[in-house]
Design a protein that fits this description.
By secondary structure, this protein is of the alpha+beta class. The protein is built from 8 helices and 18 strands. Bound molecules: pyridoxal-5'-phosphate. Residues 73, 197, 233, 236-238, 257, 259-262, 301-303 line the site of pyridoxal-5'-phosphate.
């Protein structure tokens, strides 16, 4: 028996599909999931598509104690003709391996795993919603499963893919959000795990997010962990500014997550003749530009929202209102183009989409 042939166990009872526009993010899952095991000395084995179900794990499984885990997030989109498209999925598996390397997790074979994902989506095609702004959110992840309390890398892992239909991120168009510039808590520091999609980076941000919400903000803008001076990210998105005609974004420095949306925006703007200046950007510099009336647009970027315009930044009691709380022209154009490519409405001249047949 070969252990590397994909086994498919079909679910005998199919769940009801939720109404397309009222699905709270990440609460409903498709009928099947993908699983694969790893053992030191043996490698990855037993790839399977099985009915979606809870796991049984030893309470001493390392994931519960030391957080050795990584994840990814991507989406499948439905076109008007009913085709199903993925957006640059190979970049997600490439990044998963980068995250794994940082967390001492063994790499997966990116191409083979993309084939397994394709098989899973083929089986769950009916779950890809079609209403404007909806998609099927895909969550690949790896957990450490060895039952052992020693502080050392696990010798066994489980790789899984689960999928969840999601409604439109913005109901009623893009709405600029109010953001608190965080100067107490830190998301990540250079040399830490900020560039990896790993669990602890997110739970360590909750306290700052709760404080920001209490003050009437939707989320936080993270500054660098050493000087609390340089801009890193907004919530779990990358951030861009348009200042006096120039587009700038923080340069990747080891603590910033390397967003695929960020990369795509830089590449797309390049084809429009707009060069993005990737550099260190201080919050003082942003405040000065604001006072000089030079800040034209601010927006976050990520798979969930694609573009999330920022309408207001609050920093140490100072309020910066951006573009009169309205969405900027460039933000709107980027949103329309990228979501257009993802859903087949705009021709994909970049070669970014992969069709699942
Ligand atoms: C996932 C993520 C992003 C955005 O990455 P995309 O690939 O564009 O979805 C940005 N920042 C953080 C912290 C993230 O986890």
């Amino acid at each position: 028996m070969t252990t590397n042939e994909l086994e498919i166990v079909q679910s005998t009872s199919k769940k009801d599909k939720p109404s397309q526009d009222q699905v709270p993010f990440g609460t409903i899952f498709t009928d099947h999931m993908f699983t694969m095991e790893y053992e030191a000395g043996k490698g990855w084995f037993e790839p399977k598509i099985v009915p979606y179900a809870p796991l049984t794990l030893d309470p001493a499984a390392m994931i519960f104690h030391y957080g050795q885990t990584v994840f990814e997030g991507l989406k499948a989109y439905r076109t008007e003709e009913g085709r199903v498209l993925l957006f640059r999925p190979e970049k997600n598996f490439e990044r998963l391996n980068l995250s794994s390397e940082r967390l001492s997790i063994p790499p997966i074979d990116e191409n083979v795993v993309l084939e397994y994902l394709t098989k899973l989506i083929e089986l769950e095609k009916d779950w890809v919603p079609s209403t404007a702004g909806t998609s099927l959110y895909i969550r690949p992840f790896i957990i450490s499963t060895e039952a052992n309390l020693a502080v050392a890398p696990s010798k066994t892992y489980k790789f899984m893919i689960i999928m969840s239909p999601v409604g439109s991120y913005f109901t009623g168009g893009l709405k600029p959000v109010t953001i608190h510039v965080e100067d107490q808590f830190t998301r990540a520091v250079k040399g830490g795990t900020g560039m990896a999609k790993t669990a602890g980076n997110y739970s360590s941000g909750y306290q700052a997010q709760a404080n920001a919400k209490k003050l009437g903000n939707a989320d936080v803008l993270w500054l660098d962990g050493v000087e609390k001076k340089y801009i890193e990210e907004v919530g779990s998105m990358n951030i861009f500014f348009k200042i006096n005609g120039e587009v700038v974004t923080p340069a990747l420095n080891g603590s910033i997550l390397k967003g695929i949306t960020r990369m795509s925006i830089i590449e797309l703007l390049g084809t429009w003749g707009i060069e993005v200046n990737e550099k260190k950007i201080s919050i003082d510099e942003i405040y000065q530009a604001f006072q000089d009336g030079l800040i034209e647009e601010v927006f976050g970027t990520g798979t969930a929202a694609v573009i999330s315009p920022v309408g207001e930044l609050n920093w140490q009691g100072k309020k910066m209102i951006i573009n009169n709380h309205e969405i900027g022209e460039l933000s709107q154009k980027l949103y329309d183009t990228i979501t257009g490519i993802q859903t087949g409405k705009v021709e994909d001249t970049m070669g970014w989409t992969v069709e699942v047949k």
